Structures are given as structure tokens and as C-alpha cells.
Task: inverse folding
């Protein structure tokens, strides 16, 4: 019995580290007041001919729109984009400041919330489609919307930062969880993680969420994908989980472009090299050479 308790404790602790650690930088430095990142959510913004699609930003697990996009949002705005962002996946009734820790609900629910936000953006801007830039969970969750909730007709370009299309095998968690379930401990683990972070188990390689998302191919025809990975990713392991094998996808590993780039999972959101890749992906007709 003591061994079983130890196994459950180890699994729950590791999962908590995974989801909280992935957004630790955002959660540790909460915004002075809840709100939009600089340059985002001007609902009077009308897209230009140069950038006809508004850009919708999706943050990572345990993060929020304010801090996750503090750097990239104003950069996109300065380049003439209409930029929009939301904090999603917060259970109803969550008090402040915990309600600033997003990405916790099951990703199917967050995808519905995301889709409603996209509809709102399209209505206010008059645009036909949006472009998506997502980080961590925000690189994965919106594809459920694209693939299953009608998003394929409303999304043009999809930029995924530190994506995990095949999930993560961090700390051998998928194997540990499978072993625990065989011992009959599944309900215990689900009962602990469910109220706290129900999306956590969905990130693991082999989860039901990922199996469904990958069925018949993860890439949705008609959407242009750009995937940006880092070899130093401490949350997505292996980092090649973010590689998308599809004709409508481009894949980049930061260190293949700039060998001395040291950005890991969190720093990707503020990395100047990543920003260059995002700008090129959103406007490929005017792509510029990458500078390290």
C-alpha cells in the first residue's frame, strides 16, 4: 500500500510540475491588473489590405494572455496587424487572482471558448478568416477547434510555438500513468488532477485527446501550419513531438537556424528569433532572412 501511495504521489507531483512549470514565468509574475497585452483587443481595429487576417493569440497552460504575449503582441501591432488575445480555460467561479491562471479546463471545452472568441473577432473586424499564433497548450488546443468545430473555414495561417502534436513523454509519465491504471489507480489520479488541472493528462503521449486529434492526420487541409521547436524544451519531450508531417506544414528547430540559441519552452514566447519566424509565417510574401 505504501508503494502504491508513493506511485500516485509521484505521478501527481510530476504532472503538476509539467503544467505549472510550463507557465511558471507567467504565473509567477501576475499582471498588475487583469487585461489585454499591449496592442491587443482593439475592437475597432479594421484589417488592412496588407494584413487582411486578424491575429488571434492563444497562451500556454497555467499562463494568461497578459504575460504570455507581453512581447509579441505589441510587435505584431506595430507591423500593422489587428491583434486579439484571450485568457481561456478558467473554470467558472474561480476567484481572483487564480482566475488569471488559464488553460486548465479540458481542451475540448477551451476549444469551444476559443471558437466563440474567433467568431467575435470576425464579427467586429469584418474579416473572413483569422491567423492563429499559439504557445504550448495554445499551439495544440486551437487545432481541436480547427478540426472538429468548424474552424477550418475560419483559419488561414496557424503558427505553433513549442507544439506537441504527439504529446510529451516527460519523465516517462505516459508509461507511469499506464502502469498506475493497470494497478487500478486511474480513478485516484483522475480524482486528484480533475478538480485542479483537468487538461494536464491530455498533454501526455497516447492520451485519448491526442489520439482523436491525430486520427487521419493532425494537419487540416486548407490551413497553413508553421511549427517552431527548441531542442532545449523542458516540457515537450522529445521536442520533435512538434514536427508535423504534412504538405501544408513548415517545421523549424531554433538551433538548426541559430546553433547558439538557448531558448527553452517558456522563453520561446519572447525570443527575437521566434518573432522573426512568426512574422515570416504570417506574411510569407514578404519573408525576410533570419538573423541570429
Result:
Amino acid at each position: 500500500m505504501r508503494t502504491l501511495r508513493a506511485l500516485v504521489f509521484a505521478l501527481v507531483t510530476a504532472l503538476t510540475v509539467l503544467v505549472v512549470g510550463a507557465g511558471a514565468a507567467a504565473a509567477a509574475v501576475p499582471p498588475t491588473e487583469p487585461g489585454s497585452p499591449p496592442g491587443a483587443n482593439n475592437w475597432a481595429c479594421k484589417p488592412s489590405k496588407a494584413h487582411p487576417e486578424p491575429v488571434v493569440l492563444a497562451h500556454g497552460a497555467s499562463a494568461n494572455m497578459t504575460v504570455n504575449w507581453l512581447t509579441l503582441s505589441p510587435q505584431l501591432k506595430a507591423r500593422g496587424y489587428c491583434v486579439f488575445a484571450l485568457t481561456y480555460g478558467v473554470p467558472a467561479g474561480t476567484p481572483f487572482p487564480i482566475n488569471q491562471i488559464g488553460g486548465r479546463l479540458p481542451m475540448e471545452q477551451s476549444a469551444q471558448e476559443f471558437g466563440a472568441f474567433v467568431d467575435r473577432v470576425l464579427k467586429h473586424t469584418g474579416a473572413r478568416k483569422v491567423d492563429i499564433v499559439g504557445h504550448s497548450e495554445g499551439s495544440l488546443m486551437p487545432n481541436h477547434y480547427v478540426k472538429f468545430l468548424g474552424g477550418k473555414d475560419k483559419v488561414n495561417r496557424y503558427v505553433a510555438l513549442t507544439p506537441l502534436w504527439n504529446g510529451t513523454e516527460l519523465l516517462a509519465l505516459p508509461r507511469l500513468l499506464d502502469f498506475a491504471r493497470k494497478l487500478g489507480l486511474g480513478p485516484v489520479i483522475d480524482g486528484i488532477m480533475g478538480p485542479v488541472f483537468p487538461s494536464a493528462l491530455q498533454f501526455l503521449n497516447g492520451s485519448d485527446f491526442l489520439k482523436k486529434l491525430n486520427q487521419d492526420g493532425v494537419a487540416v487541409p486548407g490551413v497553413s501550419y508553421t511549427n517552431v521547436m527548441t531542442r532545449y524544451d523542458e516540457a515537450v519531450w522529445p521536442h520533435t513531438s512538434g514536427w508535423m508531417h504534412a504538405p501544408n506544414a513548415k517545421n523549424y528547430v531554433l538551433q538548426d537556424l541559430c546553433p547558439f540559441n538557448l531558448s527553452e519552452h517558456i522563453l520561446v514566447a519572447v525570443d527575437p528569433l521566434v518573432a522573426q519566424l512568426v512574422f515570416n509565417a504570417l506574411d510569407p510574401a514578404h519573408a525576410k532572412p533570419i538573423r541570429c
Q: What stands out?
A: The radius of gyration is 18 Å.
